[in-house]
Amino acid sequence: MKSVCVFSGSSPGARKSYQEVANKLGQELVKNGFSMVFGGGNVGLMGITADSVLNAGGKVVGVITERLHDVEVAHKGLTELFIVESMHQRKKKMAELSDSIISLPGGVGTWEEFFEALAWNQLGIHSKPVILINTDNYYSDLFEFVKRSVEEGFLPQSSLEDFHLAQDEKEAIEIIKQFQPKDTKHWYKRLER
């Protein structure tokens, strides 16, 4: 695996720990030889992580919509920036450019991106490690909700197995290194409970 897609908030969040993990994740990506793919913004945790990778000498590829680019939230110092028409194209391009997914704390956009990546694993569109970094237990309740969805029969056990909850950036990188892709050709067999 060479590239990691990072989903994260366009806000820095209320706690300093969120900004710290974004900065540390960027350093850890470069230290382990990964490039970063992200939504192309210069704000919030996404901007902090991109700056961290760039400051450590790493490669950062952004994918941003025309609408966001036009309101000048695009990061100006990236290795490469793709400008696309829609959010759907943005997510598709980020998926094409990356081998794994890490989500930092964030809001609705971050959650939606994370769950779409998880759904694509479930449907055999790809088989990638999909990881939430659980800074200050930010995602603990969400993880419990996904477990309940399995117990209630709405998700197959394989989806929970694809849902990785890491306590910090080092554990997230270790999950990527240990990841074994699943069979995408016979994906439907994983839907059996």
Characteristics:
193 residues, alpha/beta, Rossmann fold, seven-stranded parallel sheet
What does this structure look like?
The chain has 193 residues and is of the alpha/beta class. The protein has a single domain (3-177), classed as Rossmann fold. It has helices at residues 16-31, 44-55, 66-70, 87-97, 108-122, 140-151, 157-161, 169-178; strands at residues 3-7, 35-38, 60-65, 80-84, 100-103, 130-133, 163-166. The protein has a seven-stranded parallel β-sheet, sandwiched between helices. Helix 5 (108-122) links the parallel strand 5 (100-103) and strand 6. Helix 1 packs parallel to helix 2 (44-55). The radius of gyration is 16 Å and the shape is globular. 38% of the residues are buried. The mean pLDDT is 92.
Strand content: 15-25%
Characterize the overall form. Answer: globular
Q: Going across the major beta sheet, what is the strand order?
A: 4-3-2-1-5-6-7
Number of helices: 8
Q: Rg from C-alpha positions?
A: 16 Å
Largest sheet: 7 strands, parallel
- Architecture, CATH level 2? 3-Layer(aba) Sandwich
Number of domains: 1
Low-confidence stretches: none
Structural class: alpha/beta
Helix content: 40-55%
- The CATH topology, please? Rossmann fold
CA-CA gap between termini: 30 Å
Order of helices and strands: EHEHEHEHEHEHHEH
Q: Count of DSSP E strands?
A: 7
In CATH, what is the class?
Alpha Beta
Mean pLDDT, to the nearest integer, reads 92
